[in-house]
Amino acid sequence: MSHEALNPIHPSVLPELDPVFVQLYNEHVANTPAGPIDHALLRTKYSVLYSYGTGPAPDCARVYDAEVPGHNGDMIPVRVYEPASPGPWPVHIDFHGGGWGLGDLDTESHICKHICVKADVCVIDVDYRLVPEHAFPIGIQDSFAALQHIHAKGAQQFKIDPTRISLGGVSAGGNIALVCAHLARDTNIPLKLVAVGTPTVDDISKYKTASEAPWPSMQAMEHAPTLNWARLKWFDNLKWQSIAPTGPERASQIAAVSWYANILDAPNFEGLPTTLIYTAGCDPLRDEGEAYAKKLIANGNEVIQKRFAGVPHPFMHMDKGVLFRPWLVMGKKLTSFPPQICGKQSSLLI
Fold it and tell me: What is the pLDDT of residues 68-85, one digit of tens each?
């Protein structure tokens, strides 16, 4: 499979993209020669993949690495960002994106710094284990175990206020945060907020082609830059290849997947925390993220859902110069900066 995400922008989506992004992409990415997708190489480069659109981040008072128990008690790394104010602080737990098989503690470091400084909260970024070395849904399992530990022991280990927890993430990390909100509710862990960008929601293994998917954005943005249908299927295949092909191990692993394959199938949508969902106008995942928001609303939850026009899937990473800065102010109140991207106003769907 060619490295299609680096090819020039497809003419079918060019009119839907903001000219500022198009210029940035053309200057830095579009002429990169296509080649086979090398998973190991992509891992080494993933955390700087969108650096051409990433601006400088503010300095936190302190940043350090630590460990917390993950799934089955195995220790996993976390990175802690502390604000300058005296603790105990509210805590925002971040789960990075990367399609379940990419990403590390550097992937969303600039996002974590912005949230820490602008929201005056402690941010803990979770380095969950990846597929295919570990069976899906290891990212969800590790992340929820980390949340449980931070709620139970975080006051002592991290000087945080365990009654003021928010969750967030981008793409697959957004999926993890949304799933963990269900699990937290079911285990009486109070959450103040869940704030996610461009989350994955549906199980696209059910569809052989983009035209089979029920989401118009899958067809309209089949050839979108940075994330398109072919790349989505590559990530999805990586996820399902982590499951044992036969035997009792496969049966237990499939049982563990449960409704995580498509979080619209979650058994209970009531009593979930206030949820903020950002979607991108030029993202194949746009419509499924908005469908999830509508299901939350239909079940009586408080939801803010914003679609940003003219931008592709990883726009949360792109805050250089005039590009959008989607950082949130969290703590005593939730505020979003003006919803503007390169001169285009977003739509606000509630």
Answer: 999 999 999 999 999 999
Structural domains of the chain sorted by starting position, each given as residue range(s) with its CATH number in brackets: 46-349 (3.40.50.1820)
Question: Tokens representing 165?
Answer: 């927890």
Sole residue written with tokens 């408080």: 302
Residue 238: DSSP 8-state: H
H-helix or E-strand containing 172? helix 172-186
User: Between β-strands 335-336 and 160-170, what pairing exists: parallel, antiparallel or unpaired?
Assistant: unpaired
Continuous segment of H or E residues that includes residue 48: none
DSSP string, 271-315: SPPPEEEEEEEE-TTHHHHHHHHHHHHHTT--EEEEEEEEEETTG
CA distances from 154 to 72, 122, 171, 300, 334 (A): 19, 11, 26, 30, 23
Structure tokens at 294: 């509508």
Three-state DSSP state, 264 = helix
Who contacts 117 (Cβ-Cβ below 8 Å, separation ≥6)? 58, 59, 60, 83
Catalytic residues: 171, 283, 313
pTM: 0.92
Can you give the C-alpha Rg of the chain in angstroms?
19
